[in-house]
Design brief:
Order of helices and strands: HHEHEEHEEH
Structural class: alpha+beta
Shape: globular
Strand content: 5-15%
Distance between the termini: 24 Å
Radius of gyration: 19 Å
Strand order of the largest sheet: 2-4-5
Number of helices: 5
Number of strands: 5
Oligomer: single chain
Amino acid sequence: VSHELRTPITPIKGYAQLLSSRWDRMTPEKRGHILGTIEERANHLSRLVDDLLLASRASDVATAKLAVSIGTGHLADLADRAVAALPDLGPQLTVVGGDAAVLVDFERAVQCLTNLIGNAGKYSPPDSPIRVEYGPQDGEPWAVVTVIDQGRGIPAEELDRVFEKFYRVEDPMTMTTGGNGLGLFISRELARAMNGDITV
């Protein structure tokens, strides 16, 4: 986690120092690019801090269920919002389903689905297909959203651990992807707070 927190801080500090010392010698385009990078890295850092705070709240026995604001949302809208948040994966994604109204915290449900689709992209070969399927379950009072990828897979003995805080399937010494090991933990806690679940 300390590495993940330092990663966005380094370019923020470096670019801020560069702007401070060379502002008047830079073109407006160069300044705009640097300011955009600082903003993007600051947003990334903010998301990391939010994840840590959520994980901390979910771990507190006294407040084990995260606070959510339940309302009516639609599966199609959830899928559209999650896909829109990951434009780089657009060409790989196929989204199919039957729409249904569901009782969720819309923003938190989008966060969960975005995390699952983002993981599918992160752990799959470039340009490999990712399929998102959604719809109500016949005769059941719930709906299901499924994310299917062609990734490297998870060893059977690791399946139960992927939802643990800070757990990464990859060996920390040879990791090829970034991440803090909180995404799946937070997503499942949020899903459960909305009276749902996430399984693998």
